[in-house]
Task: structure prediction
Amino acid sequence: MTARATDRTRYDRATAHLDAPVAIVDLEAFDANADDLVRRAGGKPIRVASKSVRCRALLERVLAREGFAGVMSFTLAESLWLARSGFEDVLLAYPSADRAGYAELTADPKLAAAVTVLVDDPAQLDLVDAARDGGREVVRVCLELDTSLRILGGRVRVGARRSPLHSPAELADLARAVARRPGFEVVGVMAYEGHVAGVGDAVAGRPLRSRAVRLMQAAARRELAGRRAAAVRAVRAVVPGLEFVNGGGTGSVQQTAAEDAVAEIAAGSGLYVPRLFDNYTSFTGRPAALFAQPVVRRPGVGVVTVLGGGYPASGAAGADRLPVPYLPEGLRYDPQEGPGEVQTPLLGSPADDLLIGDKVWFRHAKAGELCERFDALHLVEGDAVTATVPTYRGEGHTFL
Result:
């Protein structure tokens, strides 16, 4: 029996009392992935990206482990909720236009001490001040450096369109603008190299593309290491007491951790290891988060139909954004239908061994987004569900 077949037996046994659709997290795999992230970080703390987890209980579980410190959140409302829930170090990784949230932040000393907001434009400071509504708390600010690789004189850009601040001088100029402004304090710098950390460099069946990605990423790492170090020096000249410099992501943990300028690493997807993180030469994780859909039809030989399953991930539309049938091994989508909103036909010889009511296990393309579809995660240890915990959705929150 293969390791995957063994996992299927465990998961089916653990959830035999539960009707599908159902979502699980294999705690042995989750903890092993956490240990691997810590090993790769080489002693630097890992800030957990909450958007890749979206479950308060699992955030608490990983933060209780040695090597993890702090949360990287994705909306201001989420940041405030986490801070009210007892999380003491929350870095909001994206600019916000949440006026009500800023009014709450600036009026509450506990929230203001726990939450750091991202800024890459003076207009964002204006929005905060306009929203204060009498709140006088000092707002902790993190500046974001654009990490994109620019070649051919800037005519070609590789990387996400995030911060407009590309040069060390631009970052330092904003640091000075914040330092001059009452009610704000620069405490950190963030630089997320998504084109390195979030792009697989070993795509199955595409050796030429994989080699091109590796060459691009090697060039991007060299360029960014020098520019990031210079940017941190420039900001420290303005703000000597800078508290943290955050960088990296699941796919680049060890490379980013090797940079002296970086004090902490961001990672989250590496805990669940969704399908987009199968294609890396730098690490191999264990799939920890899965969902099951029930077989509801047997239309013919070599085909079954499961209920629902059309859970595409964000990003540029493509086959790589779809969940994949995982267990039993050997199932595939009907190319004319794909995963559907209310039903999904699956083809392959394993279909003939499936009965009405059996579970088919899937892996989502991206971490965290699975939790937008389920109210609860059933935590599996061995062949038993040992706890059931709510997702953000299960606690009544859909922050985006």
Remarks:
- The first helix runs from residue 3 to 14.
- The radius of gyration is 22 Å.
- The chain has a mean pLDDT of 93.
- The chain has twelve helices and 19 strands.
